[in-house]
Structures are given as structure tokens and as C-alpha cells.
Amino acid sequence: MTETPDATGQARTGSITVTSATAIGVGGMMGAGLYTLVGLASTTAGVWVPLAFLVGGAVTVFSVHSYAKLGARYPSRGGAAQFLIRCFGDGVIAAGLNVFQFLGWIIAMALYCAGFAGYLRALLPWHTPEWSGKAIGIGLIVAVVAVNLIGTKFVGRSEIFVVTVELAILAVFVVLGLTRADPGRFADNGGHSWLGIFFAAGLLYVTYEGFGVVTNSAADMRDPARELPRAMFQALGIVMVVYVLVSAVIVMTLTLPTTRATCSQTRVSRCSAASASS
User: Fold this and answer.
1) Among 75, 159, 227, 245, fewest CB within 10 Å belongs to which?
2) Is-contact 174 249, C-beta < 8 A?
């Protein structure tokens, strides 16, 4: 494979393409938040959860822009860790922040593995002992480490495969959901104000976190200054479209949780009726 040296003389193999980097970004962002936070966000935004996703994505644009600029300027497999070193120097402050960052990733990985194990055990047609959840989680970590040890090109291809399967499943959900959708549900927002959309957007912002992992692949791109920003913004655009479509289908097909606003209005109405009758 032809190698292209960068400004520092480091050879770049180009093993990570724009497509694979985009897949890494989509995979990093699109996680359990989409399936667990929609109901919670609806308690403040009501039926306008899709708009809250849109606002959260618009705010994420600024973070993605900053990461893309830093990654293009300092292409490294260290990603955000390298940015901290460049900012604070190779000393105690950068080391301390990176240690906390790594601990956060370890905790997040443990959470993902536990969630994956729970879903897999629920899908298995036979009973599984409690210890099997930990075994599945450890097996997942081993598999991911093995994929990374094989090489960056294999990582990119694996991410493209996984993300393609996930997008295909969500596309089927959207298509089937639209056949039973009731757009009229958007007409009743349960008394929620527009301010609730911004509260929900703040909550849903966490569903976009994960775009930073793309910067860790910058060192393996042939031209990070051009390819990294393209990959990061493409990934964000794909995730925003998926979030808006999926949440819109959920609103039009499923019953949203009873919200505090609705409950408060019901209590006020009952009190008024009781006062009038007395």
C-alpha cells in the first residue's frame, strides 16, 4: 500500500477511509440513548420530541466543528487525549484529565457490555444463569480487542457492517411504523410549552456524544485535514435524520408517558370542578 507522509514526516497508510470513519462516528453516537431517553424526553417536550432531537443535533454541530478542527490540526490515535496534551502540556494536568477520561470510558464500556448481555440473554430461547451475563460481557470485550488487534482497516470494515445492519433494522421499523402512523397525534401536545423542547434537547444531547471517537482514526487517514471533517459531519447528519425519523414514528404510533404537565392540569381541573360544585 502506498504511504503518504504528513507534515511531520509520519507515514499515513490511508487504511481509514471517509466511509469507514463515518461509520465509526455513527456507531459511536447511535446507541442506547435512542431507545431509553425518548420516553423521558417526552415528559417535557410532549409530542415535539423530534424537534428536541433536531435542536440537540444543531447544538452538537459546534462540538463536532471543534473536534474536527482539532483532529485535522493534530491527527493522532490519541484523539481527545492528544488534544489535552497539546493544550496543557505533557504534565500532571493533562495526565490527570486523561486518567479520568479513561476511567469514564471503562465505566461506559462496562455499561454497554452489561446492556448487550441483557438483550442477548432475553433473545435466547433457553434459560441462562446469572453468571452468563458477565461471561457474555467479557466475551464482547475480547471480541472488540481482537478486532482492533487485527488492524485499522478491519476495524473500519467491521464498523461499516455493524452500522449498516443497525440502520437497516431502524429503516424497517420506520417503514412499518409509517404504515400505522397517525400524524394527528402531533396536534395534541398535552399542554407543554416550547421551553420544554429545550429542556428535552439538553437531555437528548447525550445521545449525540460519541462523535469524538472519529478523531482517534485521524492518524490512519490519508488526508485528515480534508477527510476528518467530512466524515464527522456526515456521521452527525445521518444520526440526526435517524433520530428525528424514529422519534416521529414513535410519537405517531405509541402512547407517550403521562407527563407532569398533563397531571398538573388534571389536578387543577378537578379542584376547579370541586370548588364549583361546592
Assistant:
1) 245
2) yes
Residue 42 sits in a domain whose CATH number is 1.20.1740.10
- What does each of the 278 residues of the chain score in pLDDT, given as a tens digit? 444 555 444 555 678 889 999 999 998 888 767 777 888 888 888 889 999 999 999 999 999 999 999 998 888 888 888 888 888 888 899 899 889 888 888 888 888 888 888 888 988 889 889 899 899 999 999 998 999 898 888 888 998 999 999 999 999 999 999 998 888 888 877 777 888 899 999 989 888 888 888 898 888 888 998 999 999 999 999 999 999 999 999 888 877 664 444 433 433 344 334 334 44
* Beta-bridge partner residues of 143: none
Please state the domain count of the chain: 1
Helices 152-179 and 224-253: crossing angle, nearest 10°? 30
Q: Tell me if 124 is assigned to some domain.
A: yes
pTM comes to 0.78
Instruction: Give dist(CA 74, CA 215) in Å, integer.
Output: 9
